[in-house]
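Table 4 source record.
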Amino acid sequence: MGYIDEKEVIKENVKLTQRFDNKLPYDIYYVEFKLLDGTSKKVRVFSEKGTIPDMRSKEYEELKKSHGHEIKEFFFTRLLGKNGLMAKEGREDYIYLGGGFLERGYLASRHIVLENGKTGQEQFDDNLFKLKLQVETIEKEETENKENTGKHYAISDLHGHYGTYTEIMKRLTSKDHLYILGDVIDRTPYGIKILLDIIRRQQQPERNPQITFLLGNHEMQLIKTLTIRKEYNRAHPENSLSLEDIHNGRYAMSRMSEHDKHYIDTWLNSNGGDQTYPYFVNASDEEKKQILELFDKAYVILPQTINGQDYLLVHAEPTTDIEILKEMKQTGKGYRYSELSNSERKHMLESRGVEGYREARNVGFVTTICGHTPWSEIYINEKRGVIRIDTGASNRIALYCIDDGSVQYIPNKENEIDNLQYK
């Protein structure tokens, strides 16, 4: 049987996860290699119990701080190539590493003699058939359970692409959970239509996936424009502005501050708000009320534990405030728009920095999933702990599965817009 050559692998994209199951005689690690030809290879790797600290533990977090990439580097160099364990054992899967984690971050020899007189490798080989049956049974049951309970998906930056949105919804079931990470509106005309559809689907949970909606910076611009108008009318009742006055540009001739005029003008004329605002103005009073209630309930940042891993969901970048991050890690509760200062809102909905990802990772969030910054395909940086899923709505939308890391790229479907058909 062949082996994987080191040159075939994208080294920085090696993914390491751990299976937590006390019924198995070994600790199991899944090492997933991304290959240059676009395929991937997942290898099951086994070590003696407790060899490496539990990857969910504080001890492991400290180990990562001291050894960093050396942990993945060990798996990479130990498995691959002519001298790697895959070649030596003649197997591309079910590889035994050994036991005894040394201070430098490396495993001791697999040829350590155990109490029963056999080496670790000999005992592993003797138990391999039984072990395979155990592992495959557990994995099969886990897969069936996931299929019964659905999966967790995330999309971001739809920017009014209603046809693409409806195509995404067709691919999900009522058992799935969809996180929408903001910027549903602006740049194209149908953002309000998407928001109203989200509300309708949330009202019919038995027929639709569970939808968790987070705010983006474009929703913030609509909220702030409405807030500016409200505050202006309170201060100037004799010269009040209607929603239509904003749409028709009459705010520019009002006594509104230049700062507020500039904010509204930037949203409407530079950021695509002119494609959204007329539809909001023409919505019924009940629809306006529902949209504002959706915004009021929506989170700006939300921690979620999915399959034992702690994630942060946010439109742009997590806060760099360590105390807020620690509180979210401890309580599992996120923050809504009204619960944050203006500076925190602006940071988490508009920033393109990286410090927030690092700080979130330092307090125990494995990954931040966000949008805001478009790439041609999803951007994954494990070192920083971030996955960016904005792929530019005018081209395609990325439907990212949090459970298994798979991605479906949904091409632009705007020429197929029709009346919504519920499942």
